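Each record in this resource describes a single protein on a pair of labelled lines. An example record follows, reproduced without changes.
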Amino acid sequence: MKRIDEMSLWERVYVPEVVRGLSVTGYRFWRNLSIHVLHSLGLAKSIQAAVTIQYPEEKAVYPDAYRGRHRLTINQNDTANCTACFLCATACPAECIYIEAGEDLTSIEKYAVRYEIDTLRCIYCGLCVEACPCDAIRMDTGLHPANLGFTRKDFVEDKKVLTDRSRELAAKGKERLYEESVSGYRKV
C-alpha cells in the first residue's frame, strides 16, 4: 500500500478507484439482468445468475450450526440447566451476559437466580455456547434476533424469556416457530 505522499495527483483524487468500483457494479448488474431476461425467454438455462431470496415468501436454508436467538435448556424438573458457573459470561467478548448465582438449600448445587443477555451488546459469536460445560445455553432456534421493543430494557432477555424459548421450541419445532415469526410480514 502506498503512502499518501507517494501517490500521484490522479491517485489522490481517487477517480480511478471510483471508476473501477462503478465498472464492477455495472458489470454485475447488467450481467445478471441479461441472464434473468434470457432465463425468462427459456434460453441460457445452464448459466446461473445471482439470486435474491424474496423474504419472507421464500426461506433461506440455514445450516444446523446457524447461531440464532439464545435459549436456556431445561431439565426434567422444568428448570434451567444453568449451574451459574459463569463460564459463558467469562467467555463473552461483548460482556453482555449477567448472572446472579444462588444456592439450592436441598442440595449442594448452585443455580442462576438471575440470567440476562443484553442482545444489543451481543455479537452472536457463540462463545457462550462453546464455554458452557453443562449445555445450558444454545443458539439453535433457527430464528434471527428480533426487534423486541423500543427501549434498551426491552432488549435484555431474562431467564424466563430464555427458558420459555426452549419450551416453545420443544412444543412447536423449528419450522413452525419460523412460520409464526414471519407470519406478520407476509402479504395478505
